[in-house]
Design a protein that fits this description.
254 residues, Rossmann fold, 8-stranded mixed sheet, globular, S-adenosylmethionine-dependent methyltransferase activity, Class I SAM-dependent methyltransferase, transferase, methyltransferase, 23S_rRNA_MeTrnsfrase_RlmA
């Protein structure tokens, strides 16, 4: 017997939001992963680095999954619950987690790191990335691409203008990285299937990824949530396309 709309929504509203772990969605939503394997790439570069920085580490889950860390590792995070979660997870690995607002400057001296990484940053301050990298250092990042999960966004907000759909395009990332004096050595974009299998998964996702439907609350969107619940019951999982891009850039050795 199908669970009721009210039960599914209430369960998702009670779910904890700290950290960047989406395991709550297991069995309720699915998303294909990019072919390049970001954590594997990051781990390989960490194994060769001497000092690394993870920008916007979230709850520290991705960094904690690296087998071999450099002698010096720092991580930044803006949201206080994530700072606490990342500290608990990463301090035993010798990582210093720094509470830092998502705005310049990064709280580190020039040329402090030979590796800077970031998975799904909300913003990228390219001049700051270039400043804290030492000459010859590398920036590696997996980022959300243009119009990601916009099937869901537009279900709630209606059609979005082209300039909004095109934001976060990898070509813009290349331009901004080069403007900061970095050489882009790898840039790849993939479009991946995502599906939401019940309305609780939708509520959880929109509560956690707060920029998808700004100001989202269950009360504010209850009618549309109920419509989507009925659509999933009638048609099956709600499909969407997730876009991700990988960018790797280096600071010239000179």
């Amino acid at each position: 017997m199908s669970r009721t709309f009210e039960d599914l929504v209430a369960e998702a509203e009670r779910a904890p939001m700290a950290g960047w772990d989406f395991s709550w969605l297991a069995g309720r939503a699915a998303e294909d992963r990019p072919s390049w394997g970001y954590q594997r790439l990051m781990g390989a570069r960490m194994a060769r680095a001497s000092a690394a920085l993870d920008v916007q580490t979230g709850g520290g889950e991705v960094l904690a999954g690296v087998d071999r860390l450099p002698p010096v590792v720092a991580a930044t995070e803006a949201w206080p619950p994530n700072v606490a979660a990342a500290t608990r997870l990463l301090r035993p690995r010798g990582v210093v987690v720094v509470a830092d607002p998502d705005e310049p400057p990064l709280p580190f001296a020039d040329a402090s790191f030979d590796l800077v990484v970031s998975r799904h940053p909300v913003t990228v301050w390219w001049q700051e990335i270039a400043r804290v990298l030492e000459p010859g250092g590398t920036y590696l990042s997996q980022q959300v691409g243009p119009a990601s999960v916009f099937e869901l966004v537009e279900f709630f907000l209606g059609p979005q203008p082209e300039e909004v759909r095109r934001s976060r395009h990898p070509d813009d990332a290349r331009r901004d990285a080069e403007a900061a004096g970095l050489d882009v050595v790898d840039l790849r974009l993939e479009s991946l299937r995502t599906e939401f299998r019940d309305i609780g998964a939708v509520v959880y996702f929109l509560r956690k990824v707060i920029w998808m439907v700004p100001g989202f609350t269950v009360d504010g969107y209850r009618d549309r949530l109920r419509d989507l619940h009925e659509k999933i019951l009638a048609e099956g999982p709600f499909p969407a396309r997730t876009t991700r891009f990988l960018i790797e850039a280096r600071k010239p050795a000179g």
